[in-house]
Specification:
Four copies of one chain form a homotetramer. By secondary structure, chain A is α/β, with parallel strands linked by helices. Helices cover about 30% and strands about 20% of the residues of chain A. In chain A, the strands form two sheets. The first copy, chain A, has a seven-stranded parallel beta sheet with strand order 3-2-1-4-5-7-6, sandwiched between helices. In chain A, strands 9-10-8-11-14-13-12 form a seven-stranded mixed beta sheet. Chains A, B, C, D: One of its GO terms (molecular function) is N-acetyl-gamma-glutamyl-phosphate reductase activity.
Amino acid sequence: MLNVVIIGASGYAGAELALLVHKHPELNLKGLYVSAGSQDANKPFSALHPQCLGLVDLPVKPLDDAGMQEAKTGTDLICLATAHEVSMNLAPQFLTAGIPVFDLSGAFRVQQDGFYDKYYGFTHDQPEWLSKAVYGLAEWNAEQIKQTDLVAVAGCYPTASLLALKPLMAAGLIKADTTPIINAVSGVSGAGRKAAIGTSFCEVSLNPYGVFNHRHQPEISYHLGGKVVFQPHLGNFVRGILATIYVQLADGVTEEQVNAAYQQAYSNSPIVRLSKQWPSIRGVAGTPFCDLHWQMQDGLLIVGSAIDNLLKGASSQALQCINLRFGFEPTLGLM
Amino acid sequence: MLNVVIIGASGYAGAELALLVHKHPELNLKGLYVSAGSQDANKPFSALHPQCLGLVDLPVKPLDDAGMQEAKTGTDLICLATAHEVSMNLAPQFLTAGIPVFDLSGAFRVQQDGFYDKYYGFTHDQPEWLSKAVYGLAEWNAEQIKQTDLVAVAGCYPTASLLALKPLMAAGLIKADTTPIINAVSGVSGAGRKAAIGTSFCEVSLNPYGVFNHRHQPEISYHLGGKVVFQPHLGNFVRGILATIYVQLADGVTEEQVNAAYQQAYSNSPIVRLSKQWPSIRGVAGTPFCDLHWQMQDGLLIVGSAIDNLLKGASSQALQCINLRFGFEPTLGLM
Amino acid sequence: MLNVVIIGASGYAGAELALLVHKHPELNLKGLYVSAGSQDANKPFSALHPQCLGLVDLPVKPLDDAGMQEAKTGTDLICLATAHEVSMNLAPQFLTAGIPVFDLSGAFRVQQDGFYDKYYGFTHDQPEWLSKAVYGLAEWNAEQIKQTDLVAVAGCYPTASLLALKPLMAAGLIKADTTPIINAVSGVSGAGRKAAIGTSFCEVSLNPYGVFNHRHQPEISYHLGGKVVFQPHLGNFVRGILATIYVQLADGVTEEQVNAAYQQAYSNSPIVRLSKQWPSIRGVAGTPFCDLHWQMQDGLLIVGSAIDNLLKGASSQALQCINLRFGFEPTLGLM
Amino acid sequence: MLNVVIIGASGYAGAELALLVHKHPELNLKGLYVSAGSQDANKPFSALHPQCLGLVDLPVKPLDDAGMQEAKTGTDLICLATAHEVSMNLAPQFLTAGIPVFDLSGAFRVQQDGFYDKYYGFTHDQPEWLSKAVYGLAEWNAEQIKQTDLVAVAGCYPTASLLALKPLMAAGLIKADTTPIINAVSGVSGAGRKAAIGTSFCEVSLNPYGVFNHRHQPEISYHLGGKVVFQPHLGNFVRGILATIYVQLADGVTEEQVNAAYQQAYSNSPIVRLSKQWPSIRGVAGTPFCDLHWQMQDGLLIVGSAIDNLLKGASSQALQCINLRFGFEPTLGLM
């Protein structure tokens, strides 16, 4: 049994991760923490996440000096479900203590000059760790994940997008000089657990946001190795992402080639389901899966990709990475 | 045409009221204001309420000294959709200037010693105006509303509850020494337009709150003239209230007597619909109506009462009161 | 006052239309009908649409021989909110009796050989009337609507799509040999009022459907005069459509040109709101408006277009057409 | 490993049960069946329940003669998630073959003369088996469940109601000659998986139904051993039940007595959570728990009780009964 500490347990992804660790046969949930100043510190976990009562009854401790010391002691791995800058600062403190870190934030995902300044509004001051981080897209980077101590778990939109696009890119099926268009809709939990007028019950409906400037667009491009148009929307549901993706195929590409590309990529990956129906939020919410389906006509391929943003888009993907890193069965604790 | 000013236009009830005034053939919407310090001051109205674009395009002005002066000048009536204490302080300033006030807050609804200290957390410092205020339950207090300059528009839960219970009380059909039980569910807009974790999209589902201490319980009791048990719930919808009410009938009361009580109360009140089906949120949301239906067995009467909390529970009832006060047709601008 | 008959009043669009006619100062709602065999025949209207109780209390009559006779007598205009084939068969019966018809179905929208066989599954047997029909997209075909007796009110998705695309097409701003992509999400009421597992509460979430074969794709292309990719989705809300549209602009097109194109098209059309924010379902549901907003980068224009599918996508657009045809103010009864 | 067959796998409770059996370490899901004439026969399970793809990939077979033979062969226990009459007819066929039956329908729940005629509309023709059935309310009937071959798993509303009321009844805390009032709201999945206008997405909101005649009222009374008023409502959510229960306490009953009654009943029952907050649908949806919380004033006790209707109200309670009957840990496969 490995001892796991989760920092940032007050959020939705942190809560899901706590439940997953609780249920995992090889992991022991050792402690839950939030930032020292958080108003959620010292509350019972179930006061924040009532569904967890009786399952995860640990207190949510503040990550002050004593908390930090405690979090490092006897801990086999750390999960950070914290804000980007907080992760950037915390990760090295655990890494230098020899504790592997699985970071659910965006702090270590993109190794590109100026990226954090432009898209996150801060200068990355841990460039060495950034350069060592492995992007935690489990189905594509398994070998590197096995050998790293710092996994930057892939973002929610990027996971849905990249799982759909990378097989096509790998097989060379995307038409040169064309740009795939990703139209994605996320549930409200993607905005995190917080009081904000924009995510209040009465204000949410369905609308585009982040037009031409969402930070997940360069994350997708960077890990795809090619340009994309990415347009996110907020939808009126709690959890899930549906991406509808439009791809111009190279001349002469056949349906068989497309099918083969997806088969080759995922025939051994039970988490990615090549479904016979179009994906839906209902089909993936509460599950660790990514559902893919596609159809083509006149050289245009439309791909539907759906995930639960809190699971495959965050915590269950983190668990996949933990399984890989520590040599467990790839889907242990997930199915 | 009467000039109307709305203060507290940033909230949901204020927005509905602005639309109603805009559509009313005898009213002119002269100005919209919010408290001087509000972050919504100086925004276009439609930036807060996008559905109003092209209908109500007034700016939302701050109620600073200049705003106050402007709000009083050439104004025939004032609507306050402000916080309780704000209303308590503002109303007299307009009343002493001779401008009738229609207050949607709870500041002038209950003329009972200690009520505001106990249930609202402040001492009422306008006892004279409080004693002059008329409770704006349009179907029951029409004559007094016609003759007052200060209407305390009835609360949302009290409106749904009192419209169901007052006919029974008036006809003496409630069993002595029994207490009606009101189980009510409100949409989230009842909590107002604000950022709060409890009303964020991801947290709302269906749950009781305010057990044994909601301020609408004494408001209902006071205006009914009898004890009630009142248990509110928050539901996962934006607007509407459904109250399911359990009443022990006096011995021997017949169905005909119950029907007659409701007919007598509302046969000339088109806003209260004595429906042949059980009411639903769907049937009243977006309408000015209160839907009532009932059934009895073994001396127990169950009454269903549904309203739109923002309309009959706030703004359209305010408009009913305005119609009464200024001698317009009772439902002008509502049907 | 013109006498209006609505056939197909059991559906959601028919109900909205009945309310609009009821409120319109120059129209009198004379009768409501459904197909003779419908199980909704002879029910009170409010048994189907509880929100209408007290507003529209007409019975829903069966369109049998007597009903047909009655529907034709003393009627100034007919609205058909019926199934496509039903409309195809009914419209001529009223037209030959000299009664103008406003058809909300797809029966008379596209004058293209083989269209109905391919996309609607029946052969159009009224080719002459089809050739005379005017497409009821009010902002674009006002002059022809004024002079026709058969208006084929535009479809819901086509309305949202065409209002966004036609200004660009008219101004020649779309890059040659590129195809705009329309990613659209509709509320469930778009599927009509019926019992079906696919639209049951427990099954609806968010998913693509009709991939490469939705009948609104050719309707859009035909009335735009250019190819489009159109991908509809079912969303978990009752009413509204949001279309997010991706357009490659011709080389050198500036933001000013795009803005000018929209201004020129809609500066005198209050129903189309050129908003400063991105449209949302919340902003248009329950309103007759189409909200448009756009942004461009590197030659790609993204346009958001939102309507209420039952209003601007059906009944309020029908009313716009009625206003035009009978010489009323263009937005009479709508604002 | 015990071989489990589920009949009625096309419904929502059947699907949840299939997932639970799939995850249970001591159970093997051997087969899934539906009635021979069902349109869902021969479909892949995930075509009906997309979330199950990759987890439960069995075909859904018709229960024709061959299916019946197959279902009996090598099967250790049968779960019936079928319609009431179907269960009544099927259960004896498996019981006489020596196979224990866990029936999720209402067919064997109430052993009272005339009950089925009055409330289910059919005459029970298996009175002997009915008399042998044990009511599957796991926390209260564990000893009998261990020794029976026919478990009538408790209904959804009765589970939420009885878990709240039985401790009070057992401790003699309910005032004589008073009747507890149960105001309950259920998610739409309680109506089953079917096409019906009443459960279509556009029609569902929140409304009372089954006033004074719901079949769960006598089921609750029978197993409580006392009268109740039970008023169900349909709510606009997929899964979950919230019951708000009003109980007149016997004179002099103290809060300590009430607390003690609940502690005594459930201190060893981890599935019933005595929460410190009021229960919510959000806190129990997707979990096997029943959440209870209460407060009293002036002799009135208000109890909130929430469950997931498909889990504790159906399939996870069935699994609790299976665990009890076959000697597994009481919560094996549930936590």
